[in-house]
Write a structure and sequence with these properties.
By secondary structure, the chain is an alpha/beta fold. Helix content is 20%, strand content 29%. It contains eight helices and 14 strands. The chain is globular and about 50 Å long. The structure holds zinc ion (2 copies). One zinc ion binds next to loops.
């Protein structure tokens, strides 16, 4: 079963162009140098309808969903609760109303730490006593090692983001990791045999909670996916010039990029 992975955003937390910056990348005419906050959507045909799973809903989610023609969302997976990954959650409202006219809620898969932040920021959505009638029809579902959404297995891949453990996800022959400064030894075992890998690459200079380009390339080579795409990219890295210096099998991601992902047999039969 063929699915497609859409890069909704490939920028770092501040986005590119970065507000107030006049650097060469921020003023570049190359549209691939315009990066919204990091997120991807996995879409596959399931009988009559398309299934859509989004990883993270950052502050640009509304614009990204419009651009990618996302008209419903079956589930959201959250990597962690930093602003660039969660602040678009409220824009699930219209999608959640449309998708579940007969009741039901969009599951938001989140760790306990992420859930606590979501519940605090969006107390008008999650508080049991809320009287806000237009709240998103969503429900938090605890992350597990392995989860299933309409027949597709999502495997949680724990990684370190500074001193904080965050989640990456593997689905079919692809995996998505963002905001990573270290990959625990056990997690490499969850990343074997990949066709497609998404890894973060912030910039050249070291950062306490993000990978440099050099680190990302080293991980890409060790994991050995057929193709590795880079994301969570800051304005230090221009698309064209950086892409030219990457080894074979590693390339800069860009907003709007779509790659094919193979899901296991049996997916897409239209079963619930
Ligand atoms: Zn981030
Ligand atoms: Zn800049």
């Amino acid at each position: 079963m063929e699915a497609r992975l859409t890069f909704l955003g490939t920028g770092t937390s501040m986005g590119v162009p970065t507000l107030g910056c006049g650097c060469a990348v921020c003023t570049s005419a190359d549209t691939r140098d315009r990066r919204l906050r990091p997120s991807v959507a996995l879409r596959w045909q399931d009988g009559e309808r398309e299934r859509v799973v989004v990883i993270d809903t950052g502050p640009d989610f509304r614009e990204q969903a419009l651009r990618a023609q996302i008209r419903y969302v079956d589930a959201v997976f959250y990597t962690h609760a930093h602003a660039d990954h969660i602040l678009g959650m409220d824009d699930l409202r219209p999608l959640s109303f449309a998708a579940f006219r007969n009741g039901g809620r969009i599951p938001l898969y989140a760790s306990n730490e992420t859930a606590a932040v979501l519940e605090r920021i969006y107390d008008y959505t999650f508080a049991p006593a809320t009287t806000y009638t237009n709240r998103a029809k969503v429900e938090i579902v605890a992350l597990e090692d392995r989860m299933r959404v309409h027949g597709v297995e999502f495997v949680r891949v724990p990684v370190m983001h500074g001193s904080m453990e965050v989640s990456g996800f593997r689905f079919g022959d692809a995996a998505y990791l963002t905001d990573v400064s270290a990959i625990p030894e056990e997690s490499f075992g969850l990343l074997e045999g990949l066709e497609t890998l998404v890894l973060p690459s912030l910039r050249h200079t070291p950062h306490p909670s993000h990978a440099t380009l050099k680190q990302a390339i080293a991980w890409a080579e060790r994991i050995g996916a057929k193709q590795t795409w880079l994301t969570h990219i800051a304005h230090e890295l221009g698309h064209e010039e950086t892409n030219r210096m990457l080894p074979a099998g590693v390339a800069m991601g860009y907003d709007g990029l779509e790659v094919a992902v193979t899901l296991p047999d049996g997916v897409g039969q239209g079963a619930a």
